[in-house]
Amino acid sequence: MMQPTLNFFSYIILFRFVCESGYKFKLKIDTFANNFNKTFMKRVLAYFFIVFVMASCSKKVTFTQSEIDIINNRDSSLIMPLFTVDDPADTSVLRAVAADLSETDIQSDLFKALKERMLATVQDTTNEGVGIAAPQVGVSKRLVIVQRFDKPGEPFEFYPNIRIIEYSDEKQLGKEGCLSVPNRSEEVERSKRVVFTYLDENSLKMVEDSAEGFTAVIFQHEVDHLEGVIYIDRVKTK
């Protein structure tokens, strides 16, 4: 049987078919690659956008605009106006549970300014105290300053995000006053010793400390403020 043979024109037709098929295949490949690249790039851009937004948000301080205004609102004096129970608007702040400070807060200029002004306020010679909590100056954050009578030089020290984790069973009864409760003092029962944790400003790690005696009383009084509790709430009725 004779084998079929291809003439010259058949070769041309076959060659054209192969070229056209190859070209169409190339177009399909290019279209697929183009669509893939577009989709891939969109996903990459979306990913980096989300990361950027999250990073930007994480770097923002958590102070409210009202708190920022309070911290920055000063004349020639660093002393801050005290919030008192005599004013209903002040009382709503004093009765609120204070929020934790973020690491960004603690590293901010606002935090430095707040500390400077709180120290000046508690050391005000016209109305001195032995401790003060941020809510008492209108800033609802977990920050207290306590005079450490149990340390050489009796320094004032700041304690961000402080929480008392242990109270001794042994109690002591003593008179207390408060800068936010003018012209009043009452006897209050407190634990003689407390153990507490707070965020170290330098390492940004939680550390543990303790206090006894009168210093322990100050810590309990100031930490109460962070929970919306005022010492008069703890006065036992006779």
Structure description:
Its EC number is 3.5.1.88. The chain has 238 residues and is of the alpha+beta class. The protein has 2 domains: 11-59; 65-234, Peptide Deformylase. Helices cover 41% and strands 21% of the residues. It has helices at residues 8-58, 65-72, 88-94, 103-106, 109-122, 213-226; strands spanning 131-133, 143-147, 156-160, 163-167, 171-178, 181-191, 193-199, 206-212. Strands 1-2-3 form a 3-stranded antiparallel beta sheet, with helices on both faces. It has a 3-stranded antiparallel beta sheet with strand order 4-7-8. A hairpin with a 6-residue loop joins strand 7 and strand 8. The chain is elongated and about 120 Å long.
Largest sheet: 3 strands, antiparallel
Query: What strand line-up does the widest sheet have?
Result: 1-2-3
Coarse structural class? alpha+beta
Q: How would you name the CATH homologous superfamily of the largest domain?
A: Peptide deformylase
- CATH architecture heading of the largest domain: Alpha-Beta Complex
Number of helices: 6
Task: Report a brief summary of the structure.
This protein is of the alpha+beta class and 238 residues long. Helix content is 41%, strand content 21%. It folds into two domains: 49 residues; 170 residues, Peptide Deformylase.
Summary tags:
238 residues; alpha+beta; Peptide Deformylase; 2 domains; 21% strand; EC 3.5.1.88; Peptide deformylase; Peptide_deformylase_sf; hydrolase; peptide deformylase activity
Secondary-structure topology with pairs:
Blueprint: H1 8-58, H2 65-72, H3 88-94, H4 103-106, H5 109-122, E1 131-133, E2 143-147, E3 156-160, E4 163-167, E5 171-178, E6 181-191, E7 193-199, E8 206-212, H6 213-226
Antiparallel strand pairs: 1-2, 2-3, 4-7, 5-6, 7-8
